[in-house]
Protein 1
Amino acid sequence: MDKHQPNPEQQKIINHINGAILVLAPVGTGKTFVLSERVARAIKNGIPIEKILCLTFTNRAAKEMSERLWRMHPEEFRQITIKTFHGLCAQMLRIEAINIGLPTDFVIYDDSDCKEIIKEVFGYQKNQDIQRTFFDIAKYKSQACTEELSFLYPTENIYQPLGLNFAKKAIRYQSILQERHAIDFADLVFFVRAMLNCKPEISQRWQERFDFVQIDEIQDTHICEYEIVRHLASRTRNLATIGDLDQTIYEWRGSEPDLVIQQFTEDFQPKKYSLTFNYRATQTLLNAASSFANSFEQRQTQITPASSCKPGKLIKTHFAENEQTEAIWIGEQIQNLAANNQRFPYNRVAILTRTHKRIEIISKVLEQLNIPCITIEQYQFFMRQEVKDTLAYLKLILNPFDTGSFRRILLRPTRGIGARTIQNVITEGEKCGFYLTDMGSIQTFVDGDPFSNLISAYKSGIIVVFDVETTGLSVTNDEVIEIAALKLVNGKVEAEFHQHILNTISVGDSQHIHGYTDKELAEKGRPANQVFSEFFDFAQNAFLIGHNVGFDIKMVTAHASKAGITIPKFQWGDTWNLANRFIDLDSYSLENLAKKLGLPNLPTHKALDDTRTTVELLGYLIPKIESKSDYRQALVYRYGEEFESLAEQIETWRDDTQKLRPADLLEKLLTESGLQAYYETDPQRENNLLELINIFRQKDKPEINSDTALRSILEFTALAKNLDQISQQDNQVMIITIHQSKGLEFDSIFIAGASQEEFPSFLSLRNDNLEEEKRLFYVAMTRAKQQLFISGFLEDSRGYSKVPSEFIDSIPDKYLQLE
Ligand SMILES: Nc1ncnc2c1ncn2[C@@H]1O[C@H](COP(=O)(O)OP(=O)(O)OP(=O)(O)O)[C@@H](O)[C@H]1O
């Protein structure tokens, strides 16, 4: 538990557990502290732990809150959902993927993966263009209005304002993601909004999910994110929002705090609270920050130092001749702070900048002065070439459709496969439903066509089409409760298998999906081992097919092995993927396909009915697949040889995911792929790979099966922001942008580059729009607990004269110590 006791104002908020509340309070007044305490109180008041949701702005904040709550409730804290917005959306979509036509094994593409696609589709070379386009695509997805939301992939009309040409390319970008079973960060929010909007039963299920919801940093929450929270809290109306309007720093990215707060007030009529006393800083720093905030056009809060705040030192201010000497001055000040202290906590010092360029200059100088420091750019752990190369192998192993990762692994170590071959496979493949990633699958080399086994099984062999229902989505904990299957012999349905399994864990909320109660299953269910062994007998030697069955196969495998049944090796296919290749449609949910293709049987979400629809869909697809077989064989004949040995390796590693823990698989893969040998000449890169193995070991959850654990580690690497990864235990000065410093506190803060046209920025001056810049400066000032330093330069690297930031004029001289 935190050492301090809540003050009376804080206590009132902590005690207010039922009903909506809005807390708008100044910086450093304990908002984060109050949020953690409220959860503890809610648990005490009997709110079920698993019904609590806390949304934070950064992964770091989520981690901090988890740690606080862990100290308070070590036993139960794991059941509390503490997530960032994107983390929550990812979880919701994983649960609902099958119901909204997303591939159940979807992966989340990080910014750099997405930018690679943008580069290709839009043909841009300059980072600036790529970045702007990436930003625009995300912006228009988040602005999509209710009518434009559907659980189809975003359509052309949402990009209309940017012109038809842009819209077409944006759709191409989207379809590449779709082919790769991938979604980007903006899709996470888009699809969640869409499903809550268009699917009443899903929407209702999520209304039931949480009884108590809190959201931090409301001022930087986008209205479309608020809509999701509103929905989640609409049943109990126990929604707490908390924030500080004076710390709004993301309006440039589309946050509209006034609108969100107005909407929240209209929707929930919350009780309003504030907090008065700042505990973070010294009186001098707080008075200085408060005077500075008087320069805001509309100041929202007042700062009052708590009685425990010490008077504190003046703000040291320095304007150096140039950018280099400014950095040297900062270095010297840190050396002074650290003088005579062998164990000086460098990690309690941060240098905050407005630009990335400033970070680069300062970090170089500090390194020369032997001051331990770290920048996010240097840190970019998951962005480093060797780390990305390694992750690409793992991503492809888990997601056979990840063309981006496949292309990457062809680069290093070199395999003699040239860019032209790759391009030819892609271009020629587009005409016959062949993906580049098919060259990484051993099936392709059996008969020169990845679908030859499927076609021959359909025409003169056995196919089993199946569907399962489960008690939930956890491959480790949940159980299969129903298996329905139809056996096709020579393309005709010859036999049916339909069994229910006696469940050992309750169906819980999943009842809403399949309609079975525990009582019903107790009556008609049979022991799992019997049902699985009968099912495998039924499916013996057959080619297994299902619609969007990535998840179903995992469930069957996990549950059957728990029931002591040995699982035979099957070949399997997925009609979601086949439809995606051979039919041009906006959504590949079974429902949409059945409607658009006019299939006689519409799916009902009953396993046997859905299986019938899948059989019809397969019948529709086979002639289309077969008609292009010759093209594919010719393509494989021409280019396949170079890929074959790699495909064999990939197949082995795919098998290994079932047997080896993620870190062990990673070690094996590094050796067998040749990556380790490739990087061993560079000790830094080699070390990073060791560090990656380390992270895999730490993040492993031995209680879950190995491939699910691997999937969850890869999801962590996609959602992790670099800032979250910098270990606070590493004793280094952090050099970060002010945006990255949000919510953090340090003993000593340096605000660097405080020269006119850098801070405030040139653009803000040109557009005469200084308000957000001022708030940014204010956020920077208020990160300091004990000491603040402000510095700038009087000549920039191109020789232009500069003057000190006009922001300094808004801090009274009595708080400044000018050097
Ligand atoms: N009642 C209290 N007594 C003493 N210290 C407190 C009290 N409440 C909070 N603090 C301390 O004040 C500091 C600021 O608290 P916290 O980070 O929760 O504030 P915040 O309002 O979330 O800040 P920001 O707006 O900058 O994100 C922390 O160091 C916290 O431990």
Protein 2
Amino acid sequence: MIIKEQTIVDSLGNKIITTDKEIRIVGRIDEPLIMILENVLSFAECEALIDLAIDRLQRAKIGKSHLVSDIRTNSSMFFEESENDLIHKIEARVSGLMNIPVSHAEPLQILHYKTGDQYQSHFDYFTSGNVINNRISTLVMYLNDVEEGGETHFPSLHFSVTPKKGSAVYFEYFYNDIRLNALTLHAGNPVVVGEKWVASLWMRKQRYR
Ligand SMILES: O=C(O)CCC(=O)C(=O)O
Ligand SMILES: [Fe+2]
């Protein structure tokens, strides 16, 4: 008998009920668990997040050295924890959806990709050094429709998610079998036509805030 590994989110059924929204599961891969979710953010929430972020964007930095790198050509910003009612509400909803307390969440991040921008293949968890409180799961929420390109691509699974305003992709990498975690390698494909806005949130194994 093959025993399936425990997942963080229970994905039985076609929806996840959170404090204030019923989120629809419209696609999934079981191991590693990857879910395509609809009705995560309202259109008004997507627009409000972009408006709040637009003047606070900086060229994205990766890794501990905080060097600007061509691995990631988009720009980004982080909101303060619960910095206003909207952020507070979204953090609570996302925490319910991801089945992890909000105290384990990194700040909500906004990414902006102009035409040609991309985020090359990477793992969201840290692989080097002695990591004590590693990341365990990710939610990438799409704030607009992209005319062409900009998919979230999982090369090892030959699987891509097309950005759709208000929808999201969820994935987790907290398995005992590290080969399952490694399958969550992913990229933000280059935006071919138009621009791309996402809000992403990373959860840690232990309290982070
Ligand atoms: O923009 C995307 O589709 C992927 C973003 C991403 O990989 C992340 O925020 O960790
Ligand atoms: Fe990522």
Protein 3
Amino acid sequence: MIEVKNLHKGFGDVQVLKGITTTFYPGKTNLIIGQSGSGKTVFLKSLIGLHTPEKGTISFDGRINTNFTEEEKQEWRQEIGMVFQGSALFDSQTVEDNVMFPLKMFTKKSHGEMLERVNVVLKRVKLENSNDKLPAELSGGMQKRVAIARAIVMNPKYLFCDEPNSGLDPRTAIVIDKLIQEITDEYQITTVINTHDMNSVMEIGEKIVFLNKGKKEWEGTSEDIFETENEAVVSFVYSSNLFKKVREAHLNKTK
Ligand SMILES: Nc1ncnc2c1ncn2[C@@H]1O[C@H](COP(=O)(O)OP(=O)(O)OP(=O)(O)O)[C@@H](O)[C@H]1O
């Protein structure tokens, strides 16, 4: 569980995050949405410790990250998995080496043990038999699977994803979203995803936090988002005609 309390972060005179309070539970896909510039990236970077809060706290299962000793910080880093926009794989390394990287970096396992673990996670993302391929030989969707395998190879408690399905066609994007949701549930990971993708909101939004100008404007589930009267949420989420129609149909059905 990640508890964010009254989080403030700014740069110079510009206040970006203005007192965000929310809780993310294990086993749930938590989505951060909001207009460009609303503070989603600064929020995610604060969660992974790249920004230090000016005020407020972020605690990981009761442990406040700004209070960590160097040793605790090292331990906590190993509890975190990350999936970046564009997959961020090492182009000159094979799939196997990409996925093995965190194990080599953080553990003293033997090569055999590492390989065993790599094969488990590659199987989980349905990429068995791709060990020797280079990223360039894979489709965008397969590259994302490698990135997910690498993110979970250390068996993380927390998973952070920045636009995990950017650049994918809608069908592949949903497959990747569902994979993240299944893994989150299976391993009871606390997963936080930054997204622009309204399909993701509808498909895997178990908890959605809507940021507006650095404040938490609204939070709820993908079901709640159909029913909300919050004007800022409605105008953002239902800005396309397609989603407007989906919402109208849903509301008519439940009347
Ligand atoms: N390191 C920084 N220094 C100064 N200002 C910053 C820094 N990082 C972000 N900002 C500012 O914070 C605001 C929020 O940026 P952020 O990148 O978090 O938005 P976002 O919601 O992720 O946008 P997008 O959807 O376009 O990625 C912007 O006005 C940005 O210019």
Protein 4
Amino acid sequence: MSPDPTVSPAAPGVVPPAPHLAEPSMDHVTAASFEDWMKAVARGFQEEHHPETLALDREVFEDDRSFGFRVGDRWVSTCGALTRELGVPGGFSVPTAAVTVVTVHPPYRRRGLLSAMMRHQLEDVARRGEPLAALWASESLIYGRFGYGPAVSRLQLRGRTRSLDFLPGVRTGGSVDELTREQFLTVVRPLHERLRRDRPGTMARPADHSWEFALFDQPFARDGATELRHVVHWSEAGEVDGFATYRFKEDQTATEPDSEVRINELWAEDPVAHATLWRYLLDLDLARRFRARNAPSDELLRLLVHDARAVGTEVLDALYVRVVDVAAALRARSYAAPLDVVIEVADDLLPANAGRWRVRTDGPAESTTVERTDDPADVALGVLELGTVYLGGVRLADLHRVGRVTEHTPGAVAAAGTAFSWHRAPWCPDFF
Ligand SMILES: CC(=O)SCCNC(=O)CCNC(=O)[C@H](O)C(C)(C)COP(=O)(O)OP(=O)(O)OC[C@H]1O[C@@H](n2cnc3c(N)ncnc32)[C@H](O)[C@@H]1OP(=O)(O)O
């Protein structure tokens, strides 16, 4: 799949072939074709192309991981992966292909281009030795057939800010300040790196452009709200131990203040920082409503307030995880309990994963061995189900209860389920 040097831009008036007669061919992006590829991405998502983000896009996307199908010089589908690290139980970061910009131009849909791109990409991820791939799905039905399981959920929280008094015992303290973007990055980058160790599902943000993404603030991304505001919490001892970002959305039609605080992400090292940051955001003058679109599924706000029902809560799917290398992925995480089990995995797309694996661990990742075995299976499941439980956010026993996991040895699901669980729910505040 080397770039075709004979492809040159068609003259403006030259009409492409009818889609049913065209034969798209797969190709990688080059510096010369990148802008057209980004235009195809925007078109595939039914969005506008934003040339003002081209320089950032160029930094973020890697040519050898960005590809698609073309007809002549015209991209009719796109697909990409970013080289990232995903936090897993035990505080480790696992090399992960962050899959993104998957589109097929409407005239070329439902003729197998997505399937071909997914196959090509998974083989490439396996070749690179990355144990995992992960993605945010625009529609939840697309990716199951390729082995991606909904491993992380999110909460969408909303409510009236004036109904959210805290219970008397809730401790707040220290102070909150709003910083410029540059000041914020100075103090928050090391704090984020520390805090994410305790939160499976989060992604490392080592490069400047991954923070650019996290703090993305082009006017077209604001949905009529203010620029992004950067908030930190200072502990009593004068250390920064929490941070949040938010926007303020004014309701210009209301005769009384009724604006909304839109919280992007909120991180805290301890309960005081957590409660104080929430209190700050809920007490902003002129606001009467709040919305947090991507709160962790174990967000504690409901336990802090008098009126738990006032925190409107919707559970939504977030990150989908695909196990690309079963042995490496299972060795990379820690377990909540010792385990010795034979797991049989079905994987039609990556046959190297299929078969029986003995997983032995005392708990910590360093103590874990995962080896192929001919011993009979204790538990059997598909690679989608393995990805679903991998970060500890979905219980193996629940998948068994609904018939998606088979137990061959009585008690094996309970034992494996306990070991695969984790004390902290996975959360993914990283959109890509
Ligand atoms: C990580 C991300 O980037 S998420 C973004 C995904 N992209 C979008 O939402 C943009 C708009 N949609 C599209 O561009 C396209 O419709 C795509 C990429 C979702 C699908 O591309 P296609 O080339 O039409 O898919 P393809 O023909 O390979 O279909 C493979 C199978 O998936 C099914 N499928 C494809 N899209 C969907 C969908 N949206 N919902 C349910 N099933 C789907 C097909 O019916 C087909 O099923 P089959 O194998 O049983 O026949």
